[in-house]
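Record format v2
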Amino acid sequence: AQTVTQSQPEMSVQEAETVTLSCTYDTSESDYYLFWYKQPPSRQMILVIRQEAYKQQNATENRFSVNFQKAAKSFSLKISDSQLGDAAMYFCAYWGTSYDKVIFGPGTSLSVIP
Amino acid sequence: NAGVTQTPKFQVLKTGQSMTLQCAQDMNHNSMYWYRQDPGMGLRLIYYSASEGTTDKGEVPNGYNVSRLNKREFSLRLESAAPSQTSVYFCASSGGRGTDYGYTFGSGTRLTVV
């Protein structure tokens, strides 16, 4: 069965610095999608970035980028120039094309220190 | 605005009471989901509906029932609420298997059972 692991329950970063959140997953599929979701204190779940497994190029959305290592089954999120509004819970997620539902990791709580 | 609408946003129940959480989406999505979120437990799938007319159990279905009323609406019912069902509940929708944009989430319902 597919699983998603986030080994860092909590992390902190100084404002304006860069932080990387880790995610690994287990799958036997070759075609799938990976996502990072952000959940701020408002509790709204927001899609931050997505990656298609067949694309070797790492996805980027403004200050957010990923390091996708397919062979290692690793999908880390890098946040550059961290801002106070980046403080949130971040969930890594996997969706195999043969499955009806997304598999979520347990989340990493990110604090931003002014 | 297009999206997923959940009602109510907050609810307090007494043990043994019943209630229905409502969810509606206007994105013409095929699939809909109910999750619960508890501290340290991440998101756990309660039930999902891959398409209109079908429903399936997720990880934690006990104590819940669902109805896919039509393509737009997917309700979650607690027949006899228990304190263990105190949680934040999220409804989500998607285009279905392998959709590359993942889920669109509702804003959540905070349920307290006393």
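Chain B touches chain A through 26 residues (CB under 8 Å).
Chain B has a mean pLDDT of 93.
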